[in-house]
Design brief:
mainly alpha; single chain; ABC transporter involved in vitamin B12 uptake, BtuC; 14 helices
């Protein structure tokens, strides 16, 4: 009975977040340097009319804001999974080496396979994310005591610095620094439908896996001993959840480059609303993360128009104080 009382209010909460996301996504396409209206957006989406303003919305803003939504959802859910699995409130794909690993793999691919298809770049980012996370957890488990939150964060900072340095070194040596910097600075400017057709299915698969294992993740987030005690196959659950994180992070980096703090902030904000049950945290993180990323991208292209402000900078302005707030609260955040 308690479950039913909790589930119905959450359904309304999730529906509200979904409506808000759609409103933000729709409204973001009417905002920009070019003079467009809500009516232009409506006609661009739901009619066959032609025109300069309508083409701008269809070819530039629509794929860009769709990419922002997908990346925000992917990184937020990846952060929620990492925090639940490691029971570390500071866990984030950017802080645990996944983003840096994907960036290093991206730089290597651009240096040695300059004409690589976008599918190859996406696969490279996935492998790089896996390698980065493997290095961090390998260092974190090297000493007796297991994965302490402090050790994981320190290992993540060290590995991320190393991998970012490798990416920069490759860029300088092969004279592709501009290309690497443009990609790793973070953002969805210039995104087209072709790369989205490859990366969006990967993120959808990652989100689906996260939802399917959300109940197991809730138990795992309490204690591994509790999970084993109720008969959970923790190794299999962790393997699938890590696979989801790799898909979500690698595909997001392939679209938008280095975007940090989304995966740290959003799950904390969502827990203040949804509680500790990951059956609620995962879907709400997806919608709130998508909305947050769209807002950040809209601010990036309007705050200093007609020039672009890096989305990573916009997110970091909010994310860094939030990170310090969580540290000050000793990981409790907004819970």
């Amino acid at each position: 009975m308690e479950t039913n009382r909790r589930l119905w209010p959450f359904r309304y909460t999730f529906l509200f977040s979904l409506i808000l996301l759609m409103a933000i996504w729709f409204g973001s396409m009417a905002i920009g340097v070019a003079d467009t209206t809500w009516g232009d957006v409506w006609r661009a989406l739901f009619s066959d009319e032609q025109g300069k303003q309508l083409d701008l919305i269809r070819e530039l803003r629509l794929p860009r804001e769709t990419a922002a939504a997908v990346v925000g959802a992917g990184l937020a859910v990846a952060g929620a999974i990492m925090q639940g699995m490691t029971r570390n409130p500071l866990a984030d794909p950017g802080l645990l080496g996944l983003t840096a690993g994907a960036n290093a793999a991206l730089a290597i691919t651009m240096a040695f396979f300059s004409s690589a298809h976008y599918l190859i770049i996406t696969v490279a980012c996935l492998l790089g994310a896996a390698a980065g996370a493997g290095m961090v957890f390998g260092i974190g488990a090297a000493r007796k005591g297991g994965f302490s939150p402090l050790r994981i964060v320190l290992a993540g900072s060290a590995v991320s610095a190393l991998l970012f340095a490798i990416a920069e070194g490759i860029g300088l040596y092969f004279h592709i620094s501009k290309d690497v910097s443009m990609w790793t600075s973070g953002g969805v400017a210039g995104t087209s439908w072709k790369p989205l057709s490859i990366t969006v299915p990967l993120i959808v698969i990652g989100l689906t896996i996260a939802m399917l294992y959300s109940r197991q993740l809730t138990i795992l987030s309490l204690s591994e001993d509790v999970a084993i005690g109720v008969g959970q196959k923790t190794t299999a659950v962790k393997t699938w959840l890590f696979f989801a994180v790799f898909l979500l992070t690698g595909a997001s980096v392939a679209i938008a480059g280095n975007i940090t703090f989304i995966g740290l902030m959003i799950p904390h904000l969502v827990r203040a609303i949804a509680g500790a049950d990951y059956r609620f945290i995962i879907p709400l993180s997806a919608t709130v993360g998508a909305a947050g990323m769209i807002v950040a991208d809209t601010a990036a292209r309007t705050v200093n128009a007609p020039f672009e402000t890096p989305v990573a900078a916009i997110v970091a302005v909010i994310g860094l104080p939030f990170f310090l707030f969580v540290v000050r609260k000793k990981g409790r955040g907004l819970e």
